[in-house]
Design a protein that fits this description.
Layout (H helix, E strand, L loop, with lengths): L1 H12 L9 H12 L3 E5 L10 E2 L3 E2 L2 H6 L2 H9 L5 E6 L3 H12 L3 E7 H6 L4 E2 L18
Parallel strand pairs: 1-3, 1-4, 4-5
Antiparallel strand pairs: 2-6
Length: 144
């Protein structure tokens, strides 16, 4: 019964990996990102990244995604459709919704889940203590 409830909650929130990724999955994903075979996107808001970001992530907040402004357009224009894209947020809900949008546009996208999954797997995290003072504290364009 509990499994059904979790599945329904996941469906309702539009997430493909709402409850996060295990350490082995994060390890595999990070290896692909490190080799340039995949791209990692952080969709958390600025106040959420103050505790850090996955070091290789592109930061594209959910509010920027919803607003579809010039920065969003620039990042989307540079995203290759032939590479795997992994997306994370705080818990997996927002990243799951963005993954669905990406898939609808022809991208190969997967929900990594939450930032804690990356951090707890011992992957590289870069602190962003002054995130509020920066328009784009990290890589804003994917590497081709």
């Amino acid at each position: 019964m509990q499994g059904l409830a979790l599945a329904l909650l996941s469906f309702a929130l539009g997430s493909t990996a709402l409850f996060g990724a295990d350490k082995a999955a994060v390890e595999a994903m990070s290896g692909k990102v490190a080799k340039g075979e995949a791209i990692l996107i952080d969709v958390r808001e600025m106040d959420e990244i103050k505790d850090g970001m996955a070091a290789p992530a592109i930061w594209l907040s959910t509010s920027e995604i919803k607003g579809k402004g010039s920065r969003y357009a620039e990042i989307m224009k540079g995203l290759p459709k032939d590479k795997q894209i992994y997306v994370y947020c705080a818990s997996g809900g927002r990243s799951g919704r963005f993954v669905e949008q990406l898939k609808e546009q022809g991208y190969k996208a997967e929900n990594l889940g939450g930032f804690a999954d990356w951090r707890d797997a011992g992957k590289s995290v870069t602190p962003v203590p002054d995130a509020g003072d920066k328009a784009c504290p990290f890589l804003c364009k994917p590497k081709g």
